[in-house]
Amino acid sequence: MSLFNVFDIASSSMTAQSQRLNIVASNLANADSATSSTGEAYRSRQVVFSTMQTASENANGVKVAGIVHADSPMKKVYEPNHPMANAEGFVEMPNVNTVDEMVNMMSASRSYENSVDMMNTTKSLLQKALTIGQ
User: Fold this and answer.
1) pTM (predicted TM-score)
2) pLDDT of residue 56
3) How much is the pLDDT for 134?
4) Contacts from 118-122 at CB under 8 Å and sequence distance 24+?
């Protein structure tokens, strides 16, 4: 495995974690929305990762295989005066767990930072290798 493959692997990780951060931001932004663009309560979304073959030979990376809706039940909030309330007075609210989303955000951010550090370390190693013959 060449040191140059590290750049392919790290960049694929950074792209995937960036998409994960965007989904987390969307979930957090809609955590208290009683309705979405479809007219129903917003459903939390999650990113599914898978491995991929990168452009370089014999190097793997990560990609977003898809974005799925979380299967946790929607929250029911008793607000009989709300315009979206059903006959029993409950409003269906998003199934976004803000604590879980904050953990996802920190994890994705940290993974992104690790990939940046890995690329910088590899760059430094390659620069030092160039000075060996001097």
Assistant:
1) 0.83
2) 57
3) 76
4) 118/6, 118/10, 119/6, 119/7, 119/10, 119/11, 122/3, 122/6, 122/7, 122/10
Structure tokens at 25: 């931001």
Closest CA to 54 of 117, 111, 11: 11
Handedness of CA 68, 54, 51, 99 (dihedral sign): negative
If you search the block for the tokens 């953990």, which residue do you land on? 103
Other beta carbons within 10 angstroms of residue 48's beta carbon come to 10
- Backbone φ and ψ of 17, nearest 5°: -70, -30
How many CB atoms lie under 10 A from the CB of residue 97? 16
Q: What is the mean pLDDT of each run of 10 residues along the chain (134 residues)?
A: 80 94 95 80 92 70 92 91 89 92 96 95 90 82
Query: In terms of Cα–Cα distance, which of 103, 24, 124 is closest to 70?
Result: 24
- The span from the CA of 63 to the CA of 51, in Å, is 6
pLDDT value at position 5?
83
d(CA 131, CA 134): 5
Q: Which residue has the tokens 């990780």?
A: 13
Tokens of 97: 């767990």
